[in-house]
Amino acid sequence: MMNDLSDVKITRRDLLIAGAITATTAAVPSVAGAQNNSNSGGGNGGPAQAAAAPVINKVTLVVNGQSRAVEVDTRTTLLDVLRENMHLTGTKKGCDHGQCGACTVIVEGRRINSCLSLAVMHDGDKITTIEGLGTPDKLHPMQAAFVKHDGYQCGYCTPGQICSAISAIEEIKQGIPSHVTADLNTKPLLSSEELRERMSGNICRCGAYSNIIDAINDVAGSRA
Amino acid sequence: MKAFSYERAKTPAEAAAAIARQPNAKFIAGGTNLLDLMKLEIEAPTHLVDVNGIGFDKIEATKEGGLRIGALVRNTDLAADQRVRRDYAVLSRALLAGASAQLRNKATTAGNLLQRTRCPYFYDTNQACNKRQPGSGCSAIGGFSRQHAVVGTSEACIATHPSDMAVAMQLLDARVETVKADGATRTIAMADFHRLPGNTPHIETALEPGELITAVTLPKPLGGKHYYRKVRDRSSYAFALISVAAVVLPDGTGRVALGGVAHKPWRLPAADASVAQGGKAVADQLLAGARTTEDNAFKITLVQRTISAVLAEAKKA
Predict the structure, then answer these.
(1) Which of B10, B104, B121, B131 has the fewest CB atoms within 10 Å of its CB?
(2) What's the confidence (pLDDT) of residue B182?
(3) Rounded (10°) angle between helices B279-286 and B298-316
(4) Is A120–B3 a contact, with Cβ atoms under 8 angstroms apart?
(5) How far does A100 lie from chain B, in Å, by closest CA?
């Protein structure tokens, strides 16, 4: 019976990791072989030129109020350090090129695409991720509003949407104008039109946009 | 991404010296374009010099009555500055028409000027691109060229410059202040800052290797009505098909610059001189000698109509 499934203590993430390992096992030997070849090439102008060795730097990030020091390859993005080193997997990797907004986190009070920022460039920075906003027992008002208004379908873009939405309201309160602000010399309005424009950096492939705007309007106290 | 070493500079001199020490080093500021390109290995620096700690992050008044915008002022802060909103509205409008809020929070003034084309053949490393790999050819010519340039093109490259901000900067006669590795400083007029592709589309600006932008200055305010009208495939968060930046003075004269039509922001003295004669006259000047493809020929009509719409609005208001 279906009830039996409730006893299975495996998270979706564990399942995905297990699947990925199974899928890549067959490929491992050939990858290792290619690496050996390039190492023996030694960068002597052969086609398999040896790559420069990775450079490891130490960086301390203040994530959700907690100071955490990590040693990372300089190439590591803020997104990857959050997910892979700190295991804060709420922040999602979508396009990894700053086009979808799934990786949005709040750094020093401002939302950014964590995929387009190097971890080593954030030494000492205060970072808020979805995990720092609320807990399943005590949701942040924006999280609660997304649940109430059904502001998602698959949920993959949701952490980015929520971080972005909180910042969007804050930016309006700070008087930062947007593309749709009619008069640059007045404070922008807390309106659906403003919020839609300000949320354009967060793509939702399920198309939950109208419910997302309802959720944000609910928190902002603005009129739909 | 290729491996690289990393250091933080505290002063422009330190940054310039650090770049000079290492071959194949690059400055990094906001990183929103550079990291994108490094992930694709279109850019592959072996050393990064982080310039975020060198200062130059303020907007200050100049003796001449204009503004000096630090190279590291974020696009969000520049667009939101009260002086820019009041006196250089076209610049605020252009910035706000570009990218997303997340990107504007990171992207810097200097980095915006230095961003590279979004030509899909430049981004696709399986395609020939003289800009990415000099001498390899241009897959955009004869390819899908809907977003490509119509003026100032060459046989080597038909890419466009992607920046909205730079179009407004050129309209406002901004100047770029720099420091070289030997400590020498100079200013470059925006009109001379970006280059046409010619036979060397990989050389995009007048900057010398290792030269660092420290600020962009704006002359004293022009007055008049300011417009930045951007036409794109989505109503937000898309690069321009074409854009029109304009300042129209009370006597009906003014100036016009275009984005999305060339390898650099596009502005001509003869076009500025014909603003009082209407949109068709201005567009004819700006697009004289245009070379279009079947895919991008629509840009000619789109430019004419958008300039006309802007000038009509200026007359009405």
Answers:
(1) B10
(2) 87
(3) 140
(4) no
(5) 10
Is the Cβ–Cβ distance between B265 and B257 less than 8 Å? yes
Provide the residue type at B42 as one letter.
I
If one compares B41 and A28, the residue with the highest pLDDT of the two is: B41
Give the count of alpha carbons within 13 A of A12, CB side only.
3
Going from the C-alpha of A174 to that of each of A104, A169, B169, B265, the distances in angstroms are 20, 9, 25, 32
Tally Cβ neighbours within 10 Å of residue A31.
10
- B253-274 as b/e: b if 16+ CB within 10 A: ebbbbbbbbbbbbbbbeebbeb
Picking from A54, A116, A171, the nearest residue to B36 by CB comes out as A116
Q: pLDDT digit string (tens) for A145-171?
A: 999 999 999 999 999 999 999 999 999
Q: Does A28 touch chain B (CB under 8 A)?
A: no
User: CB-based contact (8 Å) between A128 and chain B?
Assistant: no
**A200 touching B, CB under 8 A?**
yes
- Residue A34 tokens, joined: 């290619």
User: Which pLDDT value is given to residue A13?
Assistant: 59
Q: Which residue of B has its CA nearest to A121?
A: B50
The H-assigned helical ranges of chain A are 12-25, 28-41, 78-80, 141-149, 158-173, 192-198, 209-220
Length of chain B: 317
Low-confidence ranges of chain B (pLDDT < 70): none
Give the whole-angstrom CA distance, residue B217 versus residue B176.
7
Q: Which residues pair with B5 in a beta bridge?
A: B47
Of B52, B93, B97, the CB nearest to A121: B52
Q: The tokens of B237 are what?
A: 């968060």
Cβ contact B101–A75 (<8 Å): no
Nearest-by-CA chain A residue for B83: A185
Question: What six digits make up the tokens of B286?
Answer: 């700006």
The residue ranking higher by pLDDT, A34 or A93, is A93
Q: Longest Cα pair distance anywhere in chain B, in angstroms?
A: 58
Contact B236 A110 (CB under 8 A): no
**Which residue in chain A is spatially nearest to B86 when comparing CA positions?**
A185
Nearest to B32 among A55, A116, A197 (CB): A116
Task: Answer whether B3 sits within 8 Å of A201, measured CB to CB.
Answer: no
Count CB atoms within 10 A of the CB of residue B44. Answer: 15
CA distance A80 to A92: 9
Per-residue pLDDT at A52 exceeds 90: no
Q: Which of B32, B35, B85 sits opposite A177 (nearest CB)?
A: B85
Q: In chain A, which residue's Cα lies nearest the Cα of B81?
A: A176
